[in-house]
Amino acid sequence: MEQATARGAAPRAPAPRLPGRARGEHTHGEVPAPASAHTTEPAAPPGRRLVQRHSVRGQVLTALRTALVAGELAPGEVYSAPALAARFGVSATPVREAMQQLAVEGAVEVVLNRGFRVVERTPRELAELAEVRALIEVPVMLRLARTVPAARWAELRPLAEETAAAAARGDRAHYSERDRAFHRALLGLAGNEQLVAVAEDLHRRSQWPLTNGPATRRADLVADAAEHGALLDALIAQDLAVVESLVREHFTGAP
Known about the structure:
This protein is mainly alpha-helical. It has 2 domains: 27-118, Orthogonal Bundle (Arc Repressor Mutant, subunit A), CATH 1.10.10.10; 123-253, Four Helix Bundle (Hemerythrin (Met), subunit A). It has 10 helices and 4 strands; from the N terminus they run βαβααββααααααα. Helix 4 packs antiparallel against helix 10 and helix 9 packs antiparallel against helix 10. The longest helix has 25 residues, at 123-147.
C-alpha cells in the first residue's frame, strides 16, 4: 500500500499490504478498504477504492480495525486522516471520526497536526488484559455451565467451526472477528448486555499485535480454535474444572 505524508499527498498504485517501517518516523496513508457484495457505487478509479455512502464511518472503522489486527498498521507509525481518506474515496471527516474512536479504545493516539500514531503494546499489557478477562468471564462461564441446557451450547457449534475454518486458512483478521463472535455468543447467554460490551472491548484490545512481537503462525490459530470446540464439549458435559482451565488458558494463549 502506498505511503503519503501527513499533508495527505496523493497515493500511488495500491499494494496488497502496508510496507514495513522505514528509517525514522513516517506518515502512512493506506489500508485496505472493506469489501462489500452489495455496493452500488461505481467502479473506483486506479489507486482508489470507494466505500458505500451509508454508514461510511462504520465501514472505515471496520477496515481500520482489521488492518490493526492484521498488523498492517505498524506500532509506532503515524497515519494521516487525509491520506487515508484518499484511499477510501471519502472525505477526511469519517476517517478522523473512526480514528478518534480507535483512540478511545486505546489503539492509537493523536499526534497534533500530523495524524494518529498506532500505540506500541507490550507483553505486560497483554498479560494484564488476560487477567482482567479471566476475572470477569471465568465466574460467568462457570455459572452458565451449571444452568444452560446442553442443547443451547450445541447451537454454538457452527460458530466454533467458523473460527476453525478461518484458522486453517491462516486468515488472522477473519479469525479474530469470528473469535469475538463466538465469545459474544457464549457470554450473551448470561443476558447481561453490559457484560458483553465490556468483555468485547477487552477482547478486541487483546487481539492487537505486540510491538516487535512474532508473527502469528497458522498453527497458533488452529490450536486456539480447537479450544473453542473443547470448551463446548466441557460445557455440555458440565465439567466445571475443565471449563475453568480452558477459559483461563484460552485468554493467556490467544493469538
